[in-house]
């Protein structure tokens, strides 16, 4: 199954699916209580058929297969063809309860692993007397994947029509030697690989070439001991021999018209299980993304645990009781911090309450929280055994633990990890609280985007409420601030660019806006809204929506900047330009003394005209050129200055001077000129 499918469409129909499954469960319960009511199995089958159609519509084929088997069991109960009705009703009830949990797991953004439904599927088929399904029934690789160029361009010399009979004879010899085993097993597998190499070098149709290439990968994997040559694999290679016979009898076109799709799929299933096996096996696994289609043991364990009945309804019910227990523990701890645990019985009661709380958390699969609780109970028990009262530091640790447990309970059912085992309680508490803050911020951001969409729609329709458009930039600025708080700089840049466009083009109203531009703006806002919803619901898929949003706003001529956290307000003050041109002077002086004399004469003449006597200034004392003070050190002319600190004047501009903006340099020159 393609793992890049976005299951967000499931959220649109999830409530209806839950309601329909609830009605199906009620019909089954009514029939179990009164088996004479033969109308209930018919109602049950109708409800399950509706569920099956809905799951087919949203392309959840694994869940749809389960719904189909459930419907078949309901029909079998209705027509009385089931011999053990009690077992059939029990299995059907279990399937009805597990299907919503499976769908909740997909909505939470987890990988779709239909293989986890295989046990209940086989139980449903067993009560009807049908053959059981194998694991590869849930294995759906993309058989339309483009073959590597090294495979499609590979050719060998020969005539397909004349050589196929001889090639099949050699293939059968290798197949027989492999079946017999012994010393010639490796050589026989090498013969199989050679024949299949020649076949896909002689054939031209991609569907036929694919079969020989994948079969050659099976032979390579078995020869390298990375795949066990089981009975099932030997049967598949026997079917490959039958396809070679079809090639001999009817030619390549017959295989191309009716490709052996099921055979290729089954061969790929075993190639996916191979660990290594050579370049060809690696190329096959990469082409069909086989490692993504077969989950690992940890993923399978997590998927099975999600079907254990720990769903959102259970978490909501248990959370109420856990919070009440936490409230009582907080009261006891508050009294202890104020007065101290002088009564050993009170401490013992608190330890028992903490222990029962830890057991409850363990049943809810909150292992991190339970571990911390058990640690605190052990610390308190050590003081009880010693007959001492626990210090305030230990009680404060217990208080932090209770806060962490409360945050963990708040996060139950959200699909988020509360913390990593290597983190301290404070770090895990901080992460949990950050998740709660993120939920609030995202909720407010989505609400502001919804208000902005309504204002823009009203503007496009020319309604009276279009006056709210002036408030949209402010709403977007609030959204940007929240996104920067969550370090979502890319999303903040997109919303900032959208606000600029609305301020420049829509609010003034003096520019005619094309309908296509409004479509691009809608793409940007809706794409960002979808991304925020995916973050809030902890879905894996959202980058594609961000790409659409970014492309839409850039098409409007407002490129998205990488970081808007340091940007100032968009409203800038107009700085008047200084258009006055300083007059140029073309004065020549023989020396600096002439400049000084002329300047002094001008000042003296001005003072005499104004009637002010010139101030007598004492003659400056002569500077002793033989001794000069330089940064607190005495330096004499002729001294060796090689050991003194000096200031280097760079001949070339430094990084600091190059980094100065042109506007700042011009401004500095203007001030110096003034």
From TrEMBL:
Residues 607-645 are annotated as: Disordered. Residues 10-108 form the HPt domain. Pfam families: FimL_2nd, Hpt. Gene3D superfamilies: HPT domain. GO terms for molecular function: kinase activity. Residues 607-637 have a biased composition (Acidic residues). Coiled coil: none annotated. Its EC number is 2.7.3.-. The lineage of its organism: unclassified sequences, metagenomes, ecological metagenomes. This is Signal transduction histidine kinase CheA. It comes from hydrothermal vent metagenome. Signal peptide: none annotated. One of its GO terms (biological process) is phosphorelay signal transduction system.
